[in-house]
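#struct-help
A.M.: can someone run this one for me? Single chain, 153 residues.
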Amino acid sequence: MPADITATTALPFDIHTLFEHLNSKDDLALIIRAHLYLESILIRQIETALAKKERFDCAKLTFPNKVNLAVAMGRVDEADCAALIALNGLRNKFAHNLGTKLDEENEAQLYKIFSKRQQTFVDELRDTVGLDHTGRLRCDLAGLIIATNEVHA
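D.P.: on it. C-alpha coordinates below:
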Protein backbone atom coordinates (compact mmCIF):
# COMPACT_ATOMS: atom_id res chain seq x y z
CA MET A 1 0.00 0.00 0.00
CA PRO A 2 1.18 3.53 -0.67
CA ALA A 3 3.16 5.08 2.15
CA ASP A 4 2.32 8.64 1.13
CA ILE A 5 -1.44 8.53 1.76
CA THR A 6 -2.53 11.41 3.94
CA ALA A 7 -5.85 12.31 5.48
CA THR A 8 -7.43 15.74 5.77
CA THR A 9 -8.18 15.12 9.45
CA ALA A 10 -5.20 14.02 11.55
CA LEU A 11 -5.16 10.30 12.17
CA PRO A 12 -4.98 9.21 15.83
CA PHE A 13 -2.28 6.70 14.83
CA ASP A 14 0.68 6.39 12.49
CA ILE A 15 -0.37 5.62 8.90
CA HIS A 16 2.68 3.40 8.36
CA THR A 17 1.77 1.32 11.42
CA LEU A 18 -1.78 1.01 10.08
CA PHE A 19 -0.48 -0.37 6.78
CA GLU A 20 1.84 -2.77 8.63
CA HIS A 21 -1.08 -4.04 10.70
CA LEU A 22 -3.26 -4.47 7.63
CA ASN A 23 -0.53 -6.37 5.82
CA SER A 24 -1.30 -9.50 7.81
CA LYS A 25 -1.69 -12.77 5.92
CA ASP A 26 -4.08 -13.94 8.64
CA ASP A 27 -7.74 -13.06 7.89
CA LEU A 28 -8.64 -13.00 11.58
CA ALA A 29 -5.85 -10.55 12.43
CA LEU A 30 -6.71 -8.37 9.43
CA ILE A 31 -10.39 -8.00 10.36
CA ILE A 32 -9.81 -7.64 14.11
CA ARG A 33 -7.15 -4.98 13.60
CA ALA A 34 -9.29 -3.00 11.17
CA HIS A 35 -12.22 -3.22 13.58
CA LEU A 36 -10.04 -1.97 16.46
CA TYR A 37 -8.80 0.98 14.41
CA LEU A 38 -12.35 1.90 13.43
CA GLU A 39 -13.61 1.57 16.99
CA SER A 40 -10.79 3.84 18.19
CA ILE A 41 -11.77 6.45 15.61
CA LEU A 42 -15.45 6.26 16.54
CA ILE A 43 -14.65 6.67 20.25
CA ARG A 44 -12.44 9.68 19.52
CA GLN A 45 -15.08 11.28 17.31
CA ILE A 46 -17.78 10.78 19.92
CA GLU A 47 -15.65 11.98 22.82
CA THR A 48 -14.41 15.11 21.02
CA ALA A 49 -18.03 16.16 20.52
CA LEU A 50 -18.99 15.72 24.19
CA ALA A 51 -18.95 18.73 26.51
CA LYS A 52 -18.18 16.50 29.51
CA LYS A 53 -16.65 13.31 28.18
CA GLU A 54 -15.77 12.15 31.70
CA ARG A 55 -19.53 11.74 32.32
CA PHE A 56 -19.92 9.26 29.47
CA ASP A 57 -18.31 5.83 29.10
CA CYS A 58 -18.10 4.99 25.43
CA ALA A 59 -16.67 1.55 26.26
CA LYS A 60 -20.12 0.43 27.41
CA LEU A 61 -21.57 0.85 23.93
CA THR A 62 -21.59 -1.90 21.33
CA PHE A 63 -19.89 -1.17 18.03
CA PRO A 64 -23.21 -0.63 16.18
CA ASN A 65 -24.32 1.75 18.96
CA LYS A 66 -21.07 3.70 18.60
CA VAL A 67 -21.70 3.97 14.86
CA ASN A 68 -25.28 5.14 15.43
CA LEU A 69 -24.24 7.66 18.09
CA ALA A 70 -21.48 9.05 15.86
CA VAL A 71 -24.07 9.47 13.08
CA ALA A 72 -26.58 11.09 15.45
CA MET A 73 -23.85 13.53 16.56
CA GLY A 74 -22.98 14.37 12.96
CA ARG A 75 -19.49 12.86 13.24
CA VAL A 76 -20.08 10.07 10.69
CA ASP A 77 -22.10 10.37 7.49
CA GLU A 78 -25.20 8.20 7.52
CA ALA A 79 -24.32 6.85 4.07
CA ASP A 80 -21.12 5.41 5.57
CA CYS A 81 -22.88 3.29 8.22
CA ALA A 82 -23.61 0.20 6.15
CA ALA A 83 -19.92 -0.55 5.55
CA LEU A 84 -19.04 -0.07 9.22
CA ILE A 85 -21.83 -2.42 10.27
CA ALA A 86 -20.79 -4.90 7.55
CA LEU A 87 -17.24 -4.94 8.90
CA ASN A 88 -18.67 -5.58 12.36
CA GLY A 89 -20.54 -8.52 10.82
CA LEU A 90 -17.27 -9.92 9.44
CA ARG A 91 -15.71 -9.55 12.89
CA ASN A 92 -18.67 -11.43 14.37
CA LYS A 93 -18.18 -14.24 11.84
CA PHE A 94 -14.72 -14.78 13.30
CA ALA A 95 -16.04 -14.49 16.85
CA HIS A 96 -18.41 -17.40 16.16
CA ASN A 97 -16.00 -19.43 14.03
CA LEU A 98 -12.26 -18.77 14.38
CA GLY A 99 -11.66 -20.89 11.28
CA THR A 100 -13.52 -18.44 9.04
CA LYS A 101 -11.73 -17.68 5.77
CA LEU A 102 -12.41 -14.63 3.66
CA ASP A 103 -12.77 -14.98 -0.08
CA GLU A 104 -13.38 -12.95 -3.22
CA GLU A 105 -17.10 -12.76 -2.48
CA ASN A 106 -16.57 -11.29 1.01
CA GLU A 107 -14.36 -8.55 -0.42
CA ALA A 108 -16.73 -7.80 -3.30
CA GLN A 109 -19.73 -7.59 -0.95
CA LEU A 110 -17.92 -5.21 1.38
CA TYR A 111 -16.83 -2.94 -1.47
CA LYS A 112 -20.34 -2.91 -2.91
CA ILE A 113 -21.72 -1.66 0.43
CA PHE A 114 -19.31 1.31 0.58
CA SER A 115 -20.76 4.76 0.09
CA LYS A 116 -19.47 6.72 -2.91
CA ARG A 117 -17.29 8.73 -0.51
CA GLN A 118 -15.76 5.59 1.00
CA GLN A 119 -15.19 4.13 -2.47
CA THR A 120 -13.23 7.26 -3.40
CA PHE A 121 -10.78 6.63 -0.54
CA VAL A 122 -10.52 2.92 -1.41
CA ASP A 123 -10.07 3.53 -5.13
CA GLU A 124 -7.09 5.82 -4.44
CA LEU A 125 -5.42 2.91 -2.65
CA ARG A 126 -6.32 0.34 -5.31
CA ASP A 127 -4.23 1.86 -8.06
CA THR A 128 -1.94 -1.17 -7.93
CA VAL A 129 -2.70 -3.47 -10.84
CA GLY A 130 -3.22 -7.15 -10.23
CA LEU A 131 -4.29 -7.19 -6.59
CA ASP A 132 -5.79 -10.45 -5.40
CA HIS A 133 -8.89 -10.40 -3.18
CA THR A 134 -6.75 -10.10 -0.03
CA GLY A 135 -4.90 -7.11 -1.48
CA ARG A 136 -8.20 -5.48 -2.43
CA LEU A 137 -9.57 -6.24 1.05
CA ARG A 138 -6.55 -4.53 2.62
CA CYS A 139 -7.22 -1.47 0.47
CA ASP A 140 -10.92 -1.64 1.37
CA LEU A 141 -10.12 -1.68 5.08
CA ALA A 142 -7.47 1.05 4.93
CA GLY A 143 -9.79 3.25 2.88
CA LEU A 144 -12.66 2.61 5.25
CA ILE A 145 -10.50 3.54 8.24
CA ILE A 146 -9.19 6.74 6.62
CA ALA A 147 -12.67 7.73 5.36
CA THR A 148 -14.20 7.16 8.81
CA ASN A 149 -11.54 9.35 10.36
CA GLU A 150 -12.68 12.31 8.27
CA VAL A 151 -14.93 14.36 10.56
CA HIS A 152 -18.26 15.45 9.10
CA ALA A 153 -19.28 18.06 11.64
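A.M.: thanks! The chain is about 60% helix and 0% strand.
D.P.: also worth noting: The helical segments are 15-21, 27-49, 63-72, 81-96, 104-113, 116-125, 133-149.
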